[in-house]
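Entry 12.
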Amino acid sequence: MEAMPSELMIMFLGLLAVLVVPGFAMIEAGMARVQNSSLACLKTAMIFALAGASYALLGMNIAQHGLISGILEFISLVFGADAPSPEFFFQMLLAVTACLIIAGPVAERVRLWPLLFFCCIFAGVIFPVLQDLFITQNYLGGLGFSDLGGVNLMHMSAGIAALVAVKIAGPRPSRYADPQNSQAQDHALPGNNMPLAALGTFLLWIGLTALHSGAYFLQDLTFETAQLSRTILNAYLGSAGGAIAAFWLLTFRHGKADLTLVFNAMLAGLVSTASISIVAYPLLVFIIGGIGGILCLITVSFLDRLRLDDVTGAISIHGVGGAWAMLVAIAFNISGILGQIAGLILITMLAAGLSTIVLILIKASIGLCCSERASRHGQDAEEVGVQAYPQFEIRRTGF
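Predicted 3D structure (tokens):
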């Protein structure tokens, strides 16, 4: 059977990658409390629309031509620019996915409009600047830095920006015990719908696998069907390693496995193998994914100790998983060790620094977080006006 032309394959993978959007929506709607489920869906839809438009109209020019030239040329799409290539759509999806990663951890306390404003800036300026520095120009290329298609850059930068956002926004009311009150206790604030979160996890798995596979096409249009099959198989093995490692570790330590942590570890295993799924042997991919899953569990616990409230676990999945993926790539190109380490450090510093500046300015001007009452009782009534489950009466007292 004749293979599908490369450009058509990129478009197919790009359309398949759109499944990350319902994936993130279902994960947040399931992991959040019931009174915030409608907002999770609306927020995801608006990020898909606004972040994609920001990247299409401004960000892509910055990613290709640099910050100044990109700003000067951003209206070229409106006034008779050439038709966008398949790479354009794919890179736009990377920017959208990065913003969706950021949105999950700050659920149930950040207002919709400030979050959308930040996502437009992240997709339109911050992420494209990083793409220009580390992918298009690749100023660290002389040291051996490489990131096929910018997938690891997307995971890492979004995870770091999410960490900054969580720190600036603070935890949800009642999530952690008051240190001044010796009688106070932490509250887990569990999600309302685990089957929905499970559906979102598997939708996200498909979408991220398409993103990772498409990265190889963007790097090399001679990519063959057999290689695509290998990347998909290795994506499965990486995520399987993460899920199995988390399941056995949690069962061994606690006698039972936390469903949400297994989901997170499975996705972390997938992210951890993004840069090596075309070159690594299946057993090695399985082991690397397992380590990524364990690192995810450790990070979740560590963030809780620091009182950093990540609702969906995206910081551990994408930030730590993306960093681990960059380090793993060294094993297949030992001469690039300095470049990969330098890239990891610089991406962390730039993503954290730029995100901090923008979020602090947003917080000081239009405000970032919702009222304590809205955070306790739900943002659906205040910002959406539509309850996800109107047949159930939401309790107005307690937590």
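Annotation: DSSP finds 15 helices and no strands in the chain. Residues 67 and 251 are 49 Å apart (CA to CA).
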